[in-house]
Design goal:
It is a single chain. The chain is mainly alpha-helical and about 290 residues long. It has helices at about 1-30, 40-55, 60-85, 90-115, 140-160, 165-175, 175-180, 185-210, 215-220, 225-230, 235-255, 260-275, and strands at about 130, 135-140. It has a two-stranded antiparallel ribbon with strand order 1-2. A hairpin with a 2-residue loop joins strand 1 (about 130) and strand 2.
Length: about 290
């Protein structure tokens, strides 16, 4: 029983971070139809930006968070304005190759400025542990789930209740119709990339807090692809369900079967879901297999 509780806690914490990372991916895809292969590097850059503000510059925690959010927003807007906007009208393959190139560029910039050695960072979330049904569960893992739940709820309310959120949904449904209603599609594109940068920043910081600040953050971010394929490329709720399923699956595989298998099981699921249900659990059926 204690092993099951541990798997549940670790799996849900990893799944919550994956859901945050996948949220940014889905935002960009819904608004712009761009598949962003640099989402993992967005997590990496976000974590290092926060590390720079919090550790290198010595700013208070809340100020460092604000600085990180501002920088993530600027990076998202600049990427959309300088790299993706000139690609409007180009083929999907060309745009995909651009995002792959962007991922290499971001990773190279991080390595150039910070090197490849892991960086230590003071704990953000309280350490310690709690006993649950005989299992000793790290307190920071439970708090990661709580923080991710609050952030995902805030994003959900933003999309459903706010003026800008409704405009983003309108653009995602029909860009031409949205334009006839006076909605600036270009502004929504920029906003989508900015929000994707912010969600990636939060995911990257949470991941860095429970592990270390290093290049493996980008590798963890790559798991966003199995998550969004499972949940549905255009489904925000699907990112939450997909993230939780994938996090639990990875932890259960590593605990009950083989640790090595846990690294490949997300991609096995990816292949299976593409074969059986290519639009994912919650995606719209109009999505076609390519």
């Amino acid at each position: 029983m204690s092993t099951f509780v541990s798997v549940l806690a670790y799996g849900l914490a990893d799944g919550a971070i994956l859901a945050l990372a996948a949220l940014g991916f889905v935002l960009i895809y819904k608004a712009t139809s761009v598949i962003n292969f640099a989402q993992g590097e967005f997590l990496l850059v976000g974590a290092y930006m926060f590390y720079t503000a919090f550790v290198v510059m010595g700013l208070p925690l809340l100020v460092a968070v604000v600085v990180g959010v501002v920088v993530a927003t600027l990076i998202g807007v600049l990427v959309e304005r300088l790299i993706l906007r000139p690609m409007i009208g180009e083929s999907a393959i060309s745009i995909i190759m651009v995002t792959i190139g962007l991922s290499s560029l971001l990773r190279a910039l991080v390595q150039m400025f910070y090197g490849t050695n892991p960086r230590s960072m003071p704990a953000i979330l309280p350490r310690g542990s709690v006993d649950i049904l005989g299992a000793t569960v790290p307190l920071n893992r439970l708090l990661v789930i709580l923080v991710a739940a609050v952030v995902l709820t805030a994003f959900t309310l933003f999309f459903r209740k706010s003026r800008h959120g409704i405009a983003m949904r309108a653009v995602a449904d029909d860009q031409q119709a949205a334009m006839t209603q006076g909605i600036s599609v270009r502004r929504i594109f920029a906003m989508s990339w900015a929000l994707a940068g912010v969600s990636a920043l939060i995911a990257g910081v949470l991941l860095a807090d429970i592990s270390t600040v290093d290049q493996n953050i980008a590798a963890f971010g790559l798991l966003v692809f199995p998550v969004v394929i499972l949940g549905g490329l255009d489904s925000v709720p699907g990112t939450i369900v997909g993230g939780m399923i994938m996090g639990l699956l990875i932890q259960a595989t590593g605990t009950y079967w083989e640790a090595g298998l846990a690294t490949v099981v997300p991609y096995i699921v990816l292949v299976l879901i593409l074969l059986v249900k290519p639009y994912g659990l919650f995606g719209e059926t109009r999505i076609e297999r390519v």
